[in-house]
Amino acid sequence: MNKIKYLLIALIVVFIYSCEKDYFDDPPAPSTYNNVVPEIVDSIDNTTATLLKLNESVAWDTLAWKPAQLYEGQGLVTHYSIQVTDLGGDFSTYMEFENSTTSDTFIIITEGNLNTELLANGYGPVQTYDLQLRIKSFVHNDLDSVFTESLPFTVTTYMDVPISETMYIYGSATTVDWDASEALLMYSDNGVHTGFTYLENNMKFRFLKAQDTLDNTYNSGSLITYSSNVSAAGDNMKNFVFTGTSGWYKIEANYLTSMLTIEEYVFGAETYTYDYDNLYIVGDYDPSVSAWDANNAVAFTKESEGIFTIQATLKDGAAFKFIGQQSWGDLDWGNLGGDGNTGTIGPKGYNGNIQYDGGEKLFEITVNLKQGTYVIEEIKTELYMIGDGVGDWDWGNTDLPMIPVHSHQNLFWKIVWMNASGGFKFAPEKAWGQDFGSDTEVVSEEYNIGTKNVPVPGTAGYYMVVVDLDANKISVTEPDVYLIGNTVGSWDTANPDAKFTVDNTNQVLTLTKDLVADEIRMYAWHSYFTDWWQSEFIILSGNIEFRGTGPDQTRVSVTAGSNTVELDFINGTGSITVN
């Protein structure tokens, strides 16, 4: 029998398989009749099959048979159905295709319909079954049915889970542990979900269709085949277990082929991992940086194993990538799956440009190669003080911008003159609405951030105020200002021999000292800070100029000998005088 013919016919025939009975007009039953069973002329070819969601509309097999005869000469119409039961059974129980609905002498059974009927009749998903089928012929309730011989076959079913548009991975095998709100996004393409991240040996994981969800559809029972470094945990949550060597892997959960594959990712000469000494940013993101100049790509700072940070100005329409060498080589990371800004990185061959509208503001970019993520956060470079303790409560009168600490997003400082009474607050702009203060109005050197006014210490004078938005802390102390470098013969931080004196009587900070002829470096210091240059400033043309988040400042040299350096933080002026 020509199978191609049947397949062409199948294109115009809609096959709906049902166990519901469809009654026919019964002709009168004859008193005598001869039975001729149907003869199979196109048997099962696909005798051992793994059914797949990918192939749900594809034929599992085509069956064809010669017509049966239930008695001679009366012209009765014969009907057929397909009965399926376990191999070795006697068909006392069975499931049925096309029950009382077809008089055709062939049938095309798709993988999807076979799988659906098996699951609907008590067979489990992702299981292998040895079965048999036969063709039943019948014409009248009073007449005996006749059957073909039974045909054996073996199928593995699939779990007919919805094809999710998104997929996340989490678990103790990953860097986010069992925090579902931090589950790692994968790249999804029509049922195939791909991610790149670190996995820990002998630890568990599973997939979620969305972050922070209780849904457990995509567990170890949702896929048929695993690569050799994965097994089912056998626990109540049906987790997977990663049994391979701890490391960075490509993870592909294919719900069309019902297969989970975890393998090392190789591109060119590189087997990708996460612990590199260097990482660079390259692209068209800052007008002051040459676009896509890999040879002059800007280096990140390595914070820890696999984690890198950099501060960069991003323009509108910024596009960039991360590379492992100052050239276009095999180490190349970008937005997983193509151009965009998903926060998930993909290696070369699986990435596009990271795109961001930055408005030419300053951002901190954190890349976690181990986890497979990147984060872009605006560095808040503006914070203002206001209040009758430092001026008045009128934004039009009080202009006290704080100084951002370099390389420490959300950390600010200011040396300010405080009155003997009153209080003050902070705001990210010179306006009410987002203002904040302390959690108490009791005088202290350190406060938790809250809604109350911060009280002044009670004695008029200079004070150093530091706000740490990450730690939710406010500090109010006496100022600590120092010289450092060759002019004082020491690069030690907080050197007591190079410390300024606070002269509240004259409202200045001052230092008189023999200096070596060289570039003068000065900075404010606080226990919240980590590097002196991050709170550096200079005197330039009689004004105090703060480095803030900017690059190294214009250098100012001093004459050898006794010098007096004077700082007026009220008016923002300063002087260096040779004695």
Describe this structure in words.
Helix content is 3%, strand content 41%. It is mostly beta strands and 579 residues long. It has 5 domains: 3-156, Immunoglobulin-like; 168-264, Sandwich (Immunoglobulin-like); 270-378, Immunoglobulin-like, CATH 2.60.40; 384-477, Immunoglobulin-like, CATH 2.60.40.3620; 481-578, Immunoglobulin-like, CATH 2.60.40.3610. The strands form 11 sheets. Strands 22, 23, 26, 27, 28, 29 and 30 form a 7-stranded antiparallel sheet that branches. Strands 2, 4, 5, 7, 8 and 9 form a 6-stranded mixed sheet that branches. A 6-stranded antiparallel sheet has the order 35-36-41-42-39-38, with no helix packed on it. The protein starts with a helix and ends with a strand. Mean pLDDT is 90; it is low at 1-26.
Characteristics of this structure?
single chain; 579 residues; mainly beta; Immunoglobulin-like; 5 domains; seven-stranded antiparallel beta sheet; six-stranded mixed beta sheet; 50 strands; 3% helix; 41% strand; disordered N terminus
What topology does this entry show?
Blueprint: H1 3-10, E1 39-42, E2 48-50, E3 59-66, E4 79-86, E5 95-102, E6 106-110, H2 111-120, E7 128-138, E8 146-147, E9 151-156, E10 168-170, E11 184-185, E12 187-189, E13 192-199, E14 203-208, E15 225-226, E16 230-232, E17 240-242, E18 247-254, E19 259-263, E20 266-267, E21 270-271, E22 280-284, E23 298-299, E24 301-304, E25 307-314, E26 318-323, E27 332-336, E28 345-347, E29 351-352, E30 354-356, E31 361-368, E32 373-378, E33 384-386, E34 400-401, E35 403-404, E36 411-418, E37 423-427, E38 437-438, E39 446-450, E40 454-455, E41 461-468, E42 473-477, E43 481-484, E44 501-503, E45 508-515, E46 521-524, E47 536-540, E48 543-546, E49 561-568, E50 573-578
Parallel strand pairs: 2-9, 15-19
Antiparallel strand pairs: 1-3, 3-6, 4-5, 4-7, 7-8, 7-9, 10-11, 10-14, 12-13, 13-18, 14-17, 16-17, 18-19, 20-21, 22-23, 22-26, 24-25, 25-31, 26-27, 26-30, 27-28, 27-29, 31-32, 33-34, 33-37, 35-36, 36-41, 37-40, 38-39, 39-42, 41-42, 43-46, 44-45, 45-49, 46-47, 47-48, 49-50
